[in-house]
Write a structure and sequence with these properties.
Length: 799
């Protein structure tokens, strides 16, 4: 049941590129038309970011992996490293003479389980292989996963993830959750910018990345209705001192020299008792977009990502383990990687070129501190997990192309109009979880969860005069918000027979939200502050049945629900009439149910791994952003149904050959439209290709007694819509289908591993995402283009 106070008034955010979805442009256009005479009276005063390496692709969908990777998976979340993998995990060349595929162990269900036995689709990305392929950010590896879309907001550090088509393009809140081991990251709310600030974590001493497809609300809570992205890090090892140093260089067509440096050291403090693990990295992206106009420059989108992690693990007794972890990461970019495109699908200013009037500097700071205290009673394992995270963005959006003509028509001469934005979210979480011993006829899990978020967003509409002096403060928006959530969850798994298992789970969550918005500036008149609040309760459910056909194959059916929290709308007054705008003072949660059936098997004496899934998603009460007389609101409008097929396989016929094939077919459509959001029944959901596939082949051989490999990946993504055809504020833009080819090769020199890669071999101009909210005002669409051909190498030296 959702409650709200009667003084609740609306949401207001102007950062069109990097923060909340872009509605300020429509609002300002409306305001300028209405208050043009007023502006005329004051005019005199104013004038004073591969595709991953072949083996990583193979392991993504398969339920099997090489021996090294199978050994490294750990109970629960973090992974226990072994020296070989941390320093130089070799290619899959017959390390033990075995041509079969080995088991991948994942922690999707908060237990250590073989991926083949988990009754859902779980993909695993080996971060060691991603690094060898030169992948350093989400944009390098997520687009290569069929059925997964990463909609970048102009470069590394900001973007939104969707899985299985659960997206409306511009989101109110996230539909994919992000975890680091046991720790949730990012806000669940619109006001905390949860939809566009998915953690783009550098591959800093990560063991692997898990992609869970389908709702994960029962175990992982709000904002995971489409799936979950889980970073799994390496645990400290108390048995030996070791580490590694790595570096990589690459050259991008139309760009410069990229480089990456990383190091990790494992320090045993006392054998079997305590160990410390420290890692650090720096990644420099030289950029490839050219700016013309007043801010003309080469490699506009260049930037650096720097991070470090320290992890201390102490096991004073056989039953008690304490792990303390601190992670920091900073991203600094000179500008975005958007390119100006016209309605005909062609660049306006030339290949990989953008017209820029104001600098678009970007800075992001991430801090994550956590404590995981685990006690093993024998009959059950208790985890007490505490975490604090701080996530801050500082960015500038150049909106001159949209607003300069409008201001000029009112007699105001501005050389540029820009939107600086500063946002921060501080989040504390506490979780207590009790997990029964494994391999019992009745297995269970129970937990309590609490989170407390505080977010702030400060945005300015600023102008610059022709002489370079600052113009008037057009508008300033300051939003302060809080979000608290309390949840209890649990699941039961009953093994009716050695072959048949049934699981039921439930999560009951309650959240409370507040928001306060302060407006000031030339376009809004006197300073005003408007508060709002809301609360709601949501339940999510899970039912699965799994049947083991043989020791190496099983089938399953799964029904699971997910949700996003509701929240308050801030309903402002009309800037001309000063009458309250129409609308609801709050919006409700939206929910989804997913029904799926799957088959997983290791066949041909474990030379072939196969996974197939069909699913049907029903998405109800969809949260959508609309504009009411030029002002932001969130409404619950429309329903959607998503039907899909996922097929993945890995084939290793001999020691020398590995092949992989992955396919995703998605039919994602509105079944009930919403006129205010510009959608009608039958519209395809944005950013979702009907078909996507990857094919990979890897050949393993010896060179002068050293193990070596060579491989090729082919990725295909079908046509997508950037929005709904009837949306006037954010018009649809067709993103054509594309195919990309990548090459990889490498050699294990025993004392070092040397890898070579080529991404986008044929230098295609694949269009990944489009921002169109400036199009109604005469600006071009801002399109993210896949990086041009990139050739590079990586070197990893263990010690």
């Amino acid at each position: 049941m959702l409650k709200t106070n009667k003084k609740t008034s609306g949401i207001r955010s102007c950062n069109a590129r990097a923060a909340t979805p872009p509605f300020c442009r429509c609002k300002l256009y409306y305001a300028l038309l209405c208050v043009g005479p007023v502006l005329g009276m004051v005019s005199l005063g104013v004038q004073a970011q591969q595709s991953p390496q072949t083996q990583a692709q193979t392991q993504t969908q398969a339920q099997t992996a090489t021996p090294t990777e199978a050994q490294s998976a750990s109970p629960d979340a973090a992974a226990k490293p072994n020296k070989q993998q941390t320093s130089t995990q070799t290619t899959p060349a017959a390390q033990n003479g075995d041509t079969t595929l080995n088991t991948v162990v994942v922690t999707a269900n908060r237990r250590r389980e073989p991926a083949r036995e988990v009754p859902m689709q779980v993909n695993v990305l080996s971060t060691d292989q991603l690094q060898k392929a030169g992948a350093t950010s989400m944009a390098d590896y997520l687009p290569s996963q069929p059925g997964v879309d990463y909609n970048s907001s102009g470069g590394s550090g900001q973007g939104q993830i969707s899985i299985r088509g659960v997206t409306t393009g511009i989101q109110t809140g996230p539909t994919v959750g992000v975890y680091v081991d046991n720790i949730p990251f990012g806000s669940s709310t619109l006001y905390g910018l949860g939809a566009v600030t998915a953690l783009d974590m550098g591959l800093l001493d990560l063991n692997h990345i898990e992609i869970l497809r389908g709702p994960q609300g029962t175990l992982y809570g709000a904002g995971a209705m489409g799936g979950l992205l889980k970073y799994v890090t390496n645990e400290p090892d108390s048995e030996a001192f070791y580490g590694s140093v790595g570096t990589g260089f690459s050259v991008t067509e139309h760009g410069g020299l990229n480089n990456t440096t990383n190091a990790v050291v494992n320090i045993p403090i006392k054998e079997d008792v305590a160990a410390l693990r420290i890692s650090a990295f720096n990644d420099h992206d030289a950029g490839y977009v050219t700016a013309v106009g007043p801010q003309a420059q080469q490699r506009l989108d260049r930037g650096d990502t720097t991070g470090a992690r320290a992890s201390l693990q102490v096991t004073p007794t056989n039953q008690l383990t304490v792990r303390l972890t601190a992670t920091v990461q900073d991203i600094n970019r000179n500008g975005s990687n958007y390119v100006d495109y016209g309605p005909n699908g062609q660049p306006v200013e030339g290949d990989l070129t953008r017209r820029l009037y104001a600098p678009e500097n970007f800075h992001q700071s991430t801090q994550l501190y956590s404590s995981d205290v685990e006690y093993d009673f024998g009959w059950a394992r208790l985890n007490a997990i505490s975490a604090y995270s701080s996530f801050g963005n500082s960015s500038v959006s150049d909106t001159t192309a949209e607003f300069q003509p409008i201001f000029a028509a009112q007699g105001l001469d501005f050389s540029s109009v820009e939107v600086p934005s500063i946002s921060n979210t501080n989040k504390f979480t506490q979780e207590f979880r009790l997990t029964s011993a494994a391999n019992q006829r009745l297995e269970w899990l129970a937990g309590l969860y609490y989170t407390n978020e505080h977010s702030s967003l400060l945005e300015d509409f600023q102008s610059t005069l022709p002489n370079g002096a600052p113009g008037p403060n057009l508008e300033q928006t300051n939003i302060l918000s809080t979000y608290k959530e309390y949840a209890a969850y649990g699941s039961l798994t009953f093994h009716l027979t050695p072959r048949l298992a049934l699981t039921a789970g439930i999560r009951d969550a309650y959240n409370d939200q507040t928001v306060s918005q302060t407006l000031s500036g030339l376009l809004v008149g006197p300073t005003s502050t408007t508060p709002g609040s809301s609360s709601d309760t949501s339940k999510t459910y899970l039912l699965t049945a799994s049947y083991k056909l043989t020791d190496d194959s099983n089938v399953y059916v799964r029904a699971a629900s997910g949700y996003r929290p509701g929240g308050p709308n801030v309903l402002l007054d009309n800037v001309v009439t000063h009458q309250p705008l129409p609308g609801s003072p709050f919006f409700q949660p939206d929910t989804s149910w997913t029904y799926e059936a799957g088959y997983k098997a290791d066949l041909l004496n474990k030379h072939l791994s196969l996974a197939a899934t069909v699913y049907d998603i029903r998405w109800n009460n969809i949260q959508q952003l609309i504009s009411v007389q030029g002002f932001n609101q969130v409404v619950n409008g429309g329903k959607a149904e998503i039907k899909g097929l996922e097929l993945s396989s890995t084939y290793r016929p001999t020691n020398s050959w590995n092949f992989g094939a992955n396919l995703s077919l998605i039919d994602a459509r509105m079944t009930e439209g919403d006129a205010l959001a510009g959608s009608v029944a039958g519209d395809r959901l944005p950013n979702t290709a009907k078909a996507a596939a990857t094919l990979s082949g890897n050949y393993l051989f010896n060179v002068a007694g050293y193990r070596a490999y060579a491989g090729v990946d082919e990725r295909f993504v079908g046509m997508r819509h950037a929005g709904f055809p009837g949306n006037q504020g954010n018009p649809d833009y067709i993103l054509p289908g594309y195919a990309l080819t990548d090459l990889q090769a490498g050699v294990d020199l025993k004392k070092a591993t040397l890898s070579f890669f080529v991404r986008n071999l044929f230098d295609r101009r694949a269009l990944l995402a489009a921002l169109t909210n400036g199009v109604p005002l005469g600006a071009p669409a801002l399109v993210s283009v896949v990086p041009p051909r990139t050739i590079g190498l990586t070197l990893n030296v263990p010690f």
